[in-house]
Design a protein that fits this description.
By secondary structure, the chain is mainly β. The chain has one domain. It contains one helix and eight strands, in the order ββββββαββ. The protein has a four-stranded antiparallel sheet, covered by helices on one side. It has a two-stranded antiparallel ribbon with strand order 1-2. Strands 5-6 form a two-stranded antiparallel sheet. The radius of gyration is 13 Å and the shape is globular.
Length: 90
Amino acid sequence: MKFKPEDLPLLNAYDWVDGEMVEVKKRPRGFTNDDNVLTVSAEEGDGFADYYGEFRGGCPYIDPTLEKWAHERGHFWEWVNPGAIALYEN
């Protein structure tokens, strides 16, 4: 099964609303490449994926909700490079 960015779950995030930082729900920014592989950016500053894990003990991090979402569909996330993760079938 091929997935599109709009298939991704809404995740907890923070954003500026009327000059205040508030908790919001949003989807990670993603795209489907020429091979129909769903890829998600780790460079949006939203914290959904962090290759270097500067604020998470130095280990690569993928949001647990994204991990669960992929697992429930028989897929997993793999790092493409420090700036992106891609969804692949198990």
